[in-house]
Amino acid sequence: MDMGIGGRRALVCGASKGLGRGCAEALAKEGVHITLVARTASTLEATAEEIRQAVNNAVRITAVACDITTEEGRAAALAACPDPDMLVTNAGGPPPGDFRDWNRDDWIAALDANMLTPIELIKATVDGMIARRFGRIVNITSAAVKAPIDVLGLSNGARSGLTGFVAGLARKTVAHNVTINNLLPGPFDTDRMKSLLESAAKSTGKNVDSLRESRMKSNPAQRFGTAAEFGAACAFLCSVHAGYMTGQNILLDGGAYPGTF
């Protein structure tokens, strides 16, 4: 399927690896010019070069090493891509733990990364999209928004706040061909999954490999998802074919969520 977005511009956050990289790769293959944002310059530059080679330099790939959760980082990213047609927000999830151990600073950090940063990026880009009569905003959140995970309370709270905000705004922008949707990843084979398994191993005394195997077998798909699968879903939401879909929370979890709705 031709996504109909060749030649457009996308700002993709957390794009040096994992799900953000999967989104960037999928969009680049559709002919979209990509501005990649992540904190670690060396990893980001390596990713940018690999994507350039994968698409035979058919699109512009720009790398901006910054902390997108800061005002300075957002300014740097937007200076490199001031008028994106597509925005993919993404920031690392806060650490797991017991809510009794979290203080105000922990909560503010989670809100800054996983709620307020996406809102600030949307605020900076959505009016330009409306003026151009095309825009696609995709927020990478978490399956925990749909089915909260007790040890991920910081993530549950911050990402649910973003979800509520998007639900209202998305109904105001769609008449201008600007959609806002959320992608909710369940268990994917990423560094985030690795860190969660390592944390579980420390708390339970179990082997990381055995926990990984058990986690995969407990999923109806009998495996973890891949970044390429996630990126393909993102590319569709950014396509011309998804103009009638807005304010939605799209769950990608291999069937792990047991509910009907």
UniProtKB/TrEMBL annotation:
Belongs to the short-chain dehydrogenases/reductases (SDR) family. CDD domains: BKR_like_SDR_like. This is SDR family oxidoreductase. It holds the Pfam family adh_short_C2. SUPFAM superfamilies: NAD(P)-binding Rossmann-fold domains. It comes from Keguizhuia sedimenti. It comes from the Bacteria.
